[in-house]
Amino acid sequence: MNKIFLYLYPIEEYTKMFLFSNDEIYDNFGIEKPLPILNDCIEKRYRSKGYQIVFVLYPNKKMFGIRPKEKDKIIYTDIAFEDNNAYDENGKEKINFTPKYLNVSTLLSKLGQIDELVLGGYHSTDCVKRVGEEAIILGIDTTVDLDLTDLFFSLYKVKDYFNIDGYSPERYKEY
């Protein structure tokens, strides 16, 4: 059985939007740093349970905040980061910008035969959702682990909800 955990876009530009600008803030307020927890979640929820871990990156970007393992796979989109970013290299908003989206069918075909697909990464209501919808249309058993999308950075701090070892859609719905 080919089980895949697919994590979209672990790049610096997206990840840093959710991090404190100074690591001392975590210590000063007694907040656990999120990235070690995120890595532990991927390990405990998926890698240790036989899932192939696959990260999706833009061809011109490096992975940030994730510690890939030797057996993990990295695949690249058919678009550049700049094609999907509303801001230019100087941080100015592009005028009349329309984002390009990756070809989801091409992306999924790079994974080969998939019996079970779990999605995480950035952005839960856009890219992650698009990939999930296409996978379902293709008949792939698909789940979005909302805990491991951009929502992670709020959820991991909620001790009576967050479980590093597993995701429960029912529990998320109750929460």
Q: Helices, strands, pairings?
A:
Blueprint: E1 3-8, H1 12-15, H2 24-28, H3 34-45, E2 52-57, E3 73-76, H4 104-109, E4 116-121, H5 127-137, E5 141-149, H6 152-155, H7 169-174
Parallel strand pairs: 1-2, 1-4, 2-3, 4-5
Q: In words, what does this structure look like?
A:
Helices cover 27% and strands 18% of the residues. The protein is built from seven helices and five strands, in the order βαααββαβαβαα. It has helices spanning 12-15, 24-28, 34-45, 104-109, 127-137, 152-155, 169-174, and strands spanning 3-8, 52-57, 73-76, 116-121, 141-149. Strands 3-2-1-4-5 form a five-stranded parallel sheet, with helices on both faces.
Could you give a short description of this structure?
With 175 residues, this protein is of the alpha/beta class. 27% of the residues lie in helices and 18% in strands. α5 links the parallel β4 and β5.
- SS-based class: alpha/beta
Portion of residues in beta strands equals: 15-25%
Total count of helical runs of at least 4 residues? 7
Report, as a whole number of angstroms, the end-to-end distance. Answer: 32 Å
The low-pLDDT segments are none
* Largest sheet entry: 5 strands, parallel
What oligomeric state do these chains adopt? single chain
SSE run: EHHHEEHEHEHH
- Record field, number of beta strands: 5
Helix content: 25-40%
Q: How confident is the prediction overall: mean pLDDT?
A: 93
What would you call the shape?
globular
The strand line-up of the biggest sheet is 3-2-1-4-5
Instruction: Please compute the radius of gyration using only Cα atoms.
Output: 16 Å
